[in-house]
């Protein structure tokens, strides 16, 4: 039994250096992503697109409000049939605005995926290349939103080399 324990201890001691040499790096992907010029361009494009949708929605809402005011102002002089037709028209306009807003939101989400995917791929490729060049076996995402790394005293922070790889 003593020989087995001694053998186990020797095996453990011989394995430990290989674990100690295994490279672990970390990077705050969220922090680096928002610094990337490509990301800033994507966000500017998306914000402009969103502003365009919001502007059009405001115009549609203004027309709806104007129609509601007209209905209210003429309620005493219009026939009941005319009032019901106006109410129906206003309800249809309201429904159209709601559909427009849903469609705009879907288009913005699709556009975001379309524009951000190449940026994320570029970032991942840079991280991969830096990790390989530094002979790292693991790279952990230290972003707070992901909660992957809760303590970083050791390891290698890859932010600067990845920024250099990305050219900024």
User: What is the approximate shape?
Assistant: rod-shaped
User: What's the CATH C level?
Assistant: Alpha Beta
CATH topology: Protein Binding, DinI Protein, Chain A
The largest beta-sheet arranges its strands as 2-1-3
Please give the share of residues in helix: over 70%
Determine the strand fraction and express it as a percent band.
5-15%
CATH architecture: 2-Layer Sandwich
- Superfamily (CATH H level) name: Skp domain
Provide an overview of this structure.
With 168 residues, the chain is mainly α. It has a single domain (22-166), classed as Protein Binding, DinI Protein, Chain A (2-Layer Sandwich), CATH 3.30.910.20. The chain is built from five helices and three strands; from the N terminus they run H-E-H-H-H-E-E-H. It has helices at 2-21, 29-35, 37-74, 80-133, 159-166, and strands at residues 23-27, 136-141, 156-157. The chain has a three-stranded parallel beta sheet with strand order 2-1-3, covered by helices on one side. Helix 4 crosses helix 5. The longest helix has 54 residues, at 80-133.
